[in-house]
Amino acid sequence: MKGALYLAWRYLGYHRAKTLILTASITLIIFLPVGLRVLVRQSQEQLTARAEATPLLVGARGSPLELVLNSLYFESDVPATMSFGEMGRIEATGYALPIPVYVRFTARGYPIVGTTLDYFEFRRLRIAEGANLLMLGDAVLGARVADELGVGPGESVISSPESVFDIAGTYPLNMRIAGVLEYSGSPDDNAIFVDLKTTWVIEGIVHGHQELSGSGAAGLILRSDTANVVANAAVVQYQEITTDNLGTFHFHGDQGEYPITAVIAVPPDQRSESLLRGRFESPDEPMQIVRPIDVMDELLETVLTVEAFVIAVVVVVGLSTLATAVLVFMLSLRLRRREIDTMRKIGAARRNIGAVMASEVMAVLVAGVTLAAILTGLTSRFGSDIIRSLL
Amino acid sequence: MMVSGRSSTSRCWRNDVCDRDVASDRRDGPPVIEVQDLDFSYAEGDFVLRIPRLAIERGSTVAMVGPSGCGKTTLLNLVAGITLPRGGVVTTNDVEISAMTDQARRDFRIRNIGLVFQEFELLEYLNVLDNILLPYRINSALKLTMLVRDRARELAQEVGVADKLDRPPDKLSQGEKQRVAVCRALLTEPVLLLADEPTGNLDPGNKGRVMDILFDYAKRSGATLVTITHDLDLMDRFSRVVDFRQFHAQDE
Description:
By secondary structure, chain A is an alpha+beta fold.
């Protein structure tokens, strides 16, 4: 047996390329379906965990999936907005703690999440460096954002314009970084948090500019009456909120009409949750209330169907590859007919020749299975990190 | 060129034979090959070989000559137990090899017979040393010990390939390949050497060298050397020449 193993080893070593290709094929045949399953399970767990931790979500009528993906994972397109006043409606029921979320803008590719301090408490987010949001224009960075941008408290990030072609749009806002969050292993690591009102400043519906009532601004005023002052474009708009200019920032119109994308509703108990859902389930209701876990389960059901299909395809491809590998082996046996014949003539025992061939097949199989197991282990260990970085 | 054979004073690397015969003993007794009423044909084709009687004495050196297709290689295969006759008896080294089981014939062959082929038949994925040691890796009837390894190195030294032990066969000349193949055949200390046109692919210089090695071994160990050859220059060196035209071998 030792001799057979040695000959098999030498044969495989001599035909390295063939051995590597066969081993890689076996590895992939095993790893692809198993690794895919591991990844899907982990992403499923991550998505589900976030959704499970968010009891209810209220938003404007539209796609529930878009609402959930935008509000929980800061992904997807911006859903239809709802008015900030709707939050008061939820609060007035007394059935849940409402936490507003406005996820529309970005800064250097990272989503800006306008919310209140309740959000941090609800998600159990802790400040690792600096302080929490203190004043208008402050930003708290998710851990990964701070890492990837290489910035920290005292520095700043600038909001990105929604469209570079929107010349009538508002100027980007330079936001002071007040603090950085601890790693949470959630989409919060990839977000920039600001006060809700700061997102309205970014949108331009809250703004600050140079004083128009003084004598120095006389040349800037086009028209004024008791209610409004109309100035020309030479008025200096503030692009950064400081303690000096904070007082100049002001709201126009009814704050209750200002936009947000969703309200996270946190009911204290099951009863409150049911009652609150009842309030928003009328056919005439312009809002929708969803349980994120239901939406994600529906999505995952689709994902799992796709996964089953993909795995079926991979298994079919794998079996074809396996058949090819068997064919390669059979053909190599034909090519080795002369070698086998020589061994037989010299006096090789039939079982020894069989053992040489079997050892070669087993060595390739064992190497393939071992590599597949290692890759699966690595996927299992680092898969969640990969998924998180992709989310 | 000296190729040492088994002698009463030589080191023993095969425990199963070390206490047995010496060169002189081998020349005594019944013929090492005895063929009686042989009748052979292949399952397909019309080739038939019939030999009423043929005996080859121990310690002799025999050349088998005759035109291609007259059954020389077939007879070597029958003597070695690689193929079986349809009728008749083939006795090799006192054993009726044609009556043995397949496994017993393989075990017998690897212990008693050294085979040398025209095409060398070295394994491309083994280096020279491993090719020489091949018989010890393919049948557990032989045990690969340090003594055997030393013997392989000695043989390589004697045939002039000691400095090429780590090389693969494709890095050797034709003559070197055949010398390695001869080492492989001699390593088990066979009582019978069957060589099928061992010089057929060699230039004159290497031809003489390879035959020297085979004759030296046969002389020193008392082994019998049976060689198929078409080379008339070599005939004088053999103690006997068997002309196959006397046998009934034809396409019927």
